[in-house]
Amino acid sequence: MALVRWNPATTVPTLQDQINRLFGDMLPETQQGLGLMNWRPSIDTYEKDDAIVFKAELPGVKMEDVDIDVSNNVLTIKGERHYEDVKEEDFYRRERFYGKFQRVFTLPDNVDTTNIDARYNEGVLEITVPKTEQTQTKKIEIK
Fold it and tell me: CA-to-CA distance for 5 and 71, rounded, in angstroms?
């Protein structure tokens, strides 16, 4: 069987492809058969001169339901947003996601994993991973 380059302009999807895409977009995977949607919190990552910062949006998640682990330069953020105890028949529409989540980030070699700082404020988790002094940018004044 030969490999053929896919070209969306000339490739016509079959009816089965269109149905799979439609239902795949409408019906996300369920978690543990409970009908709860999987979710991945949004996380911004940026670099400052002296640190790498991770900011995660975790609305409705209690601080005690979040765990942060670092092992072999891998940062793992996991937690759970618990399902609200509301009768199913009382809902008109349900769009929020519940359940467990886990995000994993590989850290570069130039960070100090022993001095990581984590703060949680108003549903935003901010993790600051300091860089080692060897790799911090130093400005040199021109004389």
Answer: 40
Q: Strand pairing partners for 37?
A: 30
Q: According to the CATH classification, is domain 32-85+96-134 in 1.20.58.220?
A: no
- In eight-state DSSP terms, residue 131 is B
The pTM of the full predicted model, rounded to 2 decimals, is 0.66
Determine the residue type at 7. N
> What tens digit of pLDDT does each residue of 81-111 get?
887 777 777 777 777 778 889 999 999 988 9
CA-CA distance, 33 to 60, in Å (whole number)?
A: 22
Q: Which two tokens stand for residue 1?
A: 């069987």
Q: What angle do CA 130, 135, 140 make, to 5 degrees?
A: 115
